[in-house]
C-alpha cells in the first residue's frame, strides 16, 4: 500500500483541529483549472498541489484537543467559508462508476502479514471496524483465493448439472439470467474466521480477528430449479458437489436437504450489481449459514450423487481437531456469533462521555434473537437494541448506550439465535474442543478499553 | 378451417407429449442437454469409493522425476518443505499405518500437522493433484503422471515401497493403509443436513445467558506483546478518520487520552497510476507475484532486490525468467516461465530499469 496523498488530511476533517488557511489559497490559475479542467487525473493532480501548498503554508498548524469554538470567535470551519461553498464542484459522471470519498481511503481490505506465504492462496479481510449497517460494500467484501482470481468472460462461461439426473444440462449466463431470480441478504463467513485467536491473542484489530465476514444481497436462481430442469433424482441423490472453474477447481460437498429447501442459490448478483471478479464473477454458489468455502466461486458444475466426496477442503482443511486426536469432518455451519466493532482493538477513544457501542451478530442456524453486552468483562450484561432488518442467516446490527467514565473497561457481546443457542466463552468452547483447532471459533470476543482510550484485543482466564 | 385448427392443435399436443416433462417443464428453451464429451471433459472428481477414478498407473520412480521437475519448488524434494505451503509428509509412523489413527494428533506439543497426518482417503489426494496441481499450471498432468506423483508421495510417507506402481487396480488397497484413515468423525452438529445420520445431535457448547454477577472477576490471560505493536502497519491508517474514535498510532508508544485527535494520513492502493503498470500487471498475470513481493522477501526475493542486483541486465533477466533455476537467492528453485518472449522482455526491462512501482 502506498500513500495517495502524502500530506495529512485537511484540518477540517479532524475534530477540534485548527488550521489557518494560507493567504492566496486559490490563485487565479487554480480557479481557472478547477473551472476548465473538470474531473479526472488532471483535477486530482490539481487537488494534490493545492493541498500541498496549503500544508506548506500552514506549518504553524497545531491540533487542539478541545473544540475550536473555545478559541477566539469560533470554529474556522464555520467562520471561514470553505472552497466547496464558494466555487464550482465537479460535473456529473466525473467517475462513471463512482468511488468512495478520498477521505475514506483508509477503509480498505487488508492482508494480515505472515498469514500465508503466497498472495494468490491468501485472504484479505473486510474492514468491519469501519462498516455501517449490515451490508458490506462490494469493493470491501473479503477475499479468499486458492489459486488466484480471474475476471472470466461471462459469454464464455458455462454451467453444467450432471450426476444423478435424467439428462445432464448446460446453461449459459444468458440462460440462467432468464430464469426467475430471487434476491436475499445473507452473511458469508470463512470457516477460519477468528481462527488465529484459538490459542491466544494473535492479531490486533477486529478487521483481522473477524474480517473474513461479509454480508450482501445476493441475486440468483435457486439451485433446486436447475436440478429439477435436469430431471434430478432427489431420492437417490443425497449430496451435491459444487465445482469452480478457476485453477483450483474448488470442490465442496453440500447436503441435498439445504438444496431442497430452496436456500442454495446459483448467484450472479451482489448488492445490485454483478458479482465482483474477486468474489466469483460471473457465477457463484450461495449456501446460507454455511462457511464461505462452500460458496464455490466461478461455479462451473454441480453434480448430484449418493455419497460425499471428501475433497481436499473437507478432508485435509476445514476439519476440526478435537482433544482426543479425532478430526470432525464436514463441519460446515457457522454457529451463532457476535463481535463489537466500536470500540474495538487498535482504536483509541477520543475522550470520556457518551458512546454508542455497536457491533454485528449472526447465526448459521437462523435469526438472531438477542444480543447482550457487558462492559465489565462478563460479570454483568444488558440487552442491546437489535436494528432492523433482522433476517435469516444474515448479519444483524446491534447498538447499546454507554457512558465511559475513563476507567479501564472490558467490553464483550454475547449473541443468541432463535434456536436458543447462546454464544460460548473461550473457556466453554475450549472445554469441548481444546485449543488446537483452526476453524469455527465463535467464542465471545473481549476488548480492553484502557484509561488512555486505547483499545486492545485481550482474552480472559 | 376448423379441421385445420384441430389438426394443428392435435399436432401441438402430440409434440408437447413427446417431450419429457423434465426437459421442458416450466422453463422451455432454457439450457440444453450436455453432450457425453462435455460431461467427460468436466466430470473429473473422484470420490472415496473411487467412483470417477480413470484407468492408469504410475511408479514411484517416475513420480520422483516428475516431483523434482514440477512439484519440489513449492513442496521441497521430500515433500517436507514449509517454505510455500504446509509440509505434506511427516509426523506419521508404522504404528499409525496399522491402527489408522495418527498418534501425534493427540499430542498438544506436536508442532504441526502435515497432509499425511490428516488425509483419511487416497481419492482426496489423487483428485486434488489432478485438478489443482501443479499450483501454477493446474490440470497439466496426464492421468499416469497423477498416479506417479501420488505414488511418490505415498513412498515418502513410508506407505508403499520404492518399487511400487500405483494404479486404478490397487488404489482401494492402498487407501486402507493411510495412517489417519480412521481419524475422522461426522458425529457432530455442524453439518446442515441429516445425510450422515448425525443431524439430530445437539451443539457441543450449551452456554446459558447469565445477566448479573456472573462468574469470577475477569483476569486478562492473553494480549499482544508490546513489540508486536506495529507489525500490522500503522493501525491509525486502517481506521476511518471521523467518528467516535481514531486508529491507534502504532508507530509511536501509547499516548494520553485525547492524543488521538490529531491529523490522520489517508492511504490508497498501490500502483494505480504507475508508468510501470503493464510490467506490474504482467507479474500478476504470469503468476510471478505468487512468490515475489514488490518489497520484502516472500518465497523469492522482492522485485526491488532483484532490480538492485541486476540493474541494466535485461538479457540476463530475460533468460533467467524463461529458464528458471535455483541457488542465487536461496534453496527454493524458480519454475521456468513459458510466457511469450515479448511479455518476459517487458518484465526484464522493468526490473533492469529499477523495478519502480
Brief sketch in words of this structure:
With 461 residues, chain A is of the alpha+beta class. Chain A has 10 helices and 27 strands. Residues 1-26 and 33-66 of chain A have low confidence and may be disordered.
Description:
Chain B: Residues 241-261 are annotated as: Disordered. Chain B: It comes from Comamonas flocculans. Chain B: GO terms for molecular function: electron transfer activity; heme binding; iron ion binding. Chain A contains 10 helices and 27 strands. Chain A is an alpha+beta fold. In chain A, a hairpin with a 5-residue loop joins strand 6 and strand 7 (169-172). In chain A, the strands form 7 sheets. Chain A has a 5-stranded mixed beta sheet. In chain A, strands 8, 9, 12, 13 and 14 form a 5-stranded antiparallel beta sheet that branches. In chain A, strands 22-21-25-26-27 form a 5-stranded antiparallel beta sheet, with no helix packed on it. Chain B has 357 residues and is mostly helical. Chain B is built from 13 helices and 7 strands. Chain B has helices at residues 2-18, 21-24, 36-42, 60-75, 94-99, 115-118, 122-132, 143-156, 171-175, 277-285, 303-309, 314-323, 341-352, and strands at 32-33, 57-59, 165-167, 184-185, 220-223, 245-247, 265-268. A two-stranded antiparallel ribbon of chain B has the order 2-3. Classes of the chains: A alpha+beta (461), B mainly alpha (357). At the A-B interface, strand 1, strand 7, helix 7, strand 10 and helix 8 of A face strand 1, helix 3, helix 7, strand 4 and strand 5 of B. Strand 27 of chain A pairs antiparallel with strand 5 (220-223) of chain B, so a sheet runs across the interface.
